[in-house]
Write a structure and sequence with these properties.
Oligomer: single chain
Distance between the termini: 25 Å
Strand content: 15-25%
Helix content: 25-40%
Largest sheet: 7 strands, mixed
Length: about 425
């Protein structure tokens, strides 16, 4: 017979959201009796790290989310509270752009070397998208005057209506693949604009010359360490690992939460802090409201594959390169080279590395290959951009997030056309307890 434990609050999910929910709740109400139930055997969710070989021994790298910036005030405030240090993402030197025409160019200005017409197109696109996202209210995107029109089309449709040149369309495809892990054809224009507005705009996300840009800082000791510190603040007695939640049953005064291993909890309230598609795998009694069910079904997870290659020296810096490379990985150009973007991955302790991503369509294409095949193709690409030394790392790791149990993708879940206006912002609405 399953055991039953009585608590005040059950939090489902020990990623950064669930751990922060528990941490903030205990700061406001220290006497709260709560537990955090996590399906994995670790904390962190889409934050994770790995130890890799270096010239001096070993160091740790994030294989999930890793960047923060001054525009992200909540997380930077938390880092200060936890006494966690940050350091600048290395960006000195020339960047590389690899076009679908197979031309590889290097540049040191904020913008890639485009034709006059393409630069004008890029400027006009940036101006337009920055202004459009301001029209989408952060608190409720369905209140946007153009909500029905913009939620009724994909970003792909709008791209062809609004951008003149193929190269700028490629820029958008590349950015969307990296930021969202999908192609523009897979999400609503309204969702895209709302996400941008919440993030501070297009330039904050893509332009490394803008103060407070999205890849501004990295966290000493890895971002994953932040979740481990939060877990330590909560206490291991409140954190229950390897307990996938299978059912949530609500009554008038209480809610009952059961896990796959047979443990059950009787609580006054429950917080779900897991990706929407995973909430759809839980059996609810009574069932979730119709709109919540439909929204969950219309928020698919996206897809990134992340890799880290460590080296004895940062040879690309000596060659005057920043480590930044970007290219479109659309159908027809990603079959032999899966890499969409790279960065200098050198740690705060000076352990050199290059990290990067395989995104959206290319990630789906390459997910069927073995990790060894992925490694071979990625290192071949790094040799193309950074020279012979790049093909011979000290150590290498590739992480396909679509195969991560209890995640099934990263970095976000996106909304398909119609999801916002048809189902509203019902993720925020409580369902009884």
């Amino acid at each position: 017979m399953a055991s039953l434990e009585a608590v005040d609050v059950v939090i489902v999910g020990a990623g950064i959201s669930g751990l922060c929910a528990a941490y903030e709740l205990l700061k406001k109400r220290p006497q709260t009796n709560l537990v955090v139930l996590e399906a994995k055997d670790r904390v962190g969710g889409r934050l994770d790290s790995i130890e890799l070989k270096t010239a001096k021994g070993s160091d740790r790298w994030d294989i999930g989310g890793q960047w923060v910036s001054r525009s992200q005030k909540v997380i930077t405030s938390l880092l200060e509270e936890l006494d966690v240090e940050i350091y600048n993402q290395w960006s000195n030197g020339s960047k590389i752009m690899h076009g679908s025409d197979d031309v590889i160019t290097t540049y040191s200005s904020p913008f890639p070397p485009l034709s006059y017409v393409a630069l004008l197109d890029l400027w006009w696109f940036t101006y337009k998208v920055e202004n459009l996202c301001q029209e989408v209210p952060i608190d409720d995107p369905s209140k946007c005057p153009h909500a029905a029109e913009w939620d009724g089309m994909t970003l792909e449709t709008w791209k062809h209506q609004s951008i003149w040149t193929n190269i700028v369309k490629e820029v958008l495809d590349t950015v969307v693949g990296i930021v969202f892990g999908v192609t523009p054809s897979q999400m609503s224009l309204l969702f895209f604009l709302h996400y941008l507005h919440c993030s501070g705009g297009w330039s904050i996300i893509v332009d490394s010359s803008v103060k407070g840009h999205a890849q501004e800082w990295r966290i000493k000791g890895t971002a994953h360490r932040v979740t481990e510190l939060l877990a330590g603040r909560l206490g291991r007695d409140r954190l229950i690992l390897s307990h996938p939640v299978t059912s949530i049953k609500q009554e008038n005064e209480h809610v009952f939460v059961s896990s796959l291993v047979g443990q059950s909890y009787k609580a006054k309230s429950v917080i779900l802090a897991i990706p929407p598609h995973l909430a759809g795998q839980i059996e609810f009694s009574p069932p979730l409201p119709y709109n919540k069910q439909r929204l969950i079904q219309n928020m698919p997870p996206s897809h990134l594959i992340k890799f880290v290659a460590t080296y004895a020296t940062a040879f690309w810096r000596k060659a005057g390169l920043s480590g930044d490379m970007a290219r479109s990985t659309a159908k027809g150009v990603c079959e032999n080279n899966p890499v969409a973007i790279t960065f200098d991955g050198t740690t705060s302790d000076g352990s050199p590395a290059i990290l990067g991503f395989v995104t959206s369509y290319a990630a789906a294409k390459w997910s069927t290959e073995t990790d060894e095949m992925k490694k071979k193709a990625i290192l071949k690409a790094l040799k193309l951009y950074f020279g012979q030394e790049a093909e011979h790392p000290l150590d290498f790791c590739v992480k396909d997030w679509s195969k991560e149990t209890w995640n099934g993708g990263c970095p976000v879940n996106v909304m398909v056309p119609g999801a916002v206006i048809n189902y509203g912002d019902c993720l925020r609405e409580p369902f009884h307890r």
